[in-house]
């Protein structure tokens, strides 16, 4: 962002729709309003959508919105939202494997999740 001459702002939406709506409204009300918003989950995305609509702005013409999550309703928004899917099940399986392998093998070295025999 800085390389593009943009100033990044970070606000805490507390993973809630109502708080995210207030925070995004604040970002949109700045002297140099936000041109893009990235939300951490689908609830915050709803709040951002409300704030953007209340400001009379349109996605993506006026402000870009990216949702880190993959809510099933994202494709229903016109135009569809840009999402970053989080494979939660795969992430949980990996975390469990990382916890259990050192216990099972009495390992002291860090866990390497890459399949054995591959580089």
Question: Could you name the key traits of this structure?
Answer:
119 residues, alpha/beta, Rossmann fold, three-stranded parallel β-sheet, 3 strands, elongated
Task: Give a written overview of the molecule.
By secondary structure, the chain is an alpha/beta fold. The chain has one domain (2-86): Rossmann fold. The chain contains 3 helices and 3 strands; from the N terminus they run H-E-H-E-E-H. The protein has a 3-stranded parallel beta sheet with strand order 1-2-3, with helices on one face. Helix 1 crosses helix 2 (42-54). It is elongated. The mean pLDDT is 88.
Question: Could you write a compact summary of the structure shown?
Answer:
The chain is α/β, with parallel strands linked by helices and about 120 residues long. It has one domain (about 1-85): Rossmann fold (3-Layer(aba) Sandwich). The protein has 3 helices and 3 strands; from the N terminus they run αβαββα.
């Amino acid at each position: 962002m800085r390389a593009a001459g943009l100033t990044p702002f970070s606000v805490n939406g507390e993973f809630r729709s109502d708080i995210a709506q207030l925070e995004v409204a604040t970002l949109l009300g700045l002297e140099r309003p936000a041109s893009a918003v990235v939300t951490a989950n689908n609830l915050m995305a709803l709040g951002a959508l409300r704030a953007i609509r209340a400001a009379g702005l349109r996605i993506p013409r006026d402000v870009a919105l990216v949702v880190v999550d993959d809510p099933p309703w994202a494709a229903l928004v016109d135009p569809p939202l840009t999402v970053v899917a989080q494979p939660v099940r795969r992430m949980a399986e990996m975390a469990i494997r990382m916890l259990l392998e050192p216990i099972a093998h009495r390992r002291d070295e860090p866990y390497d999740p890459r399949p054995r025999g591959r580089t």
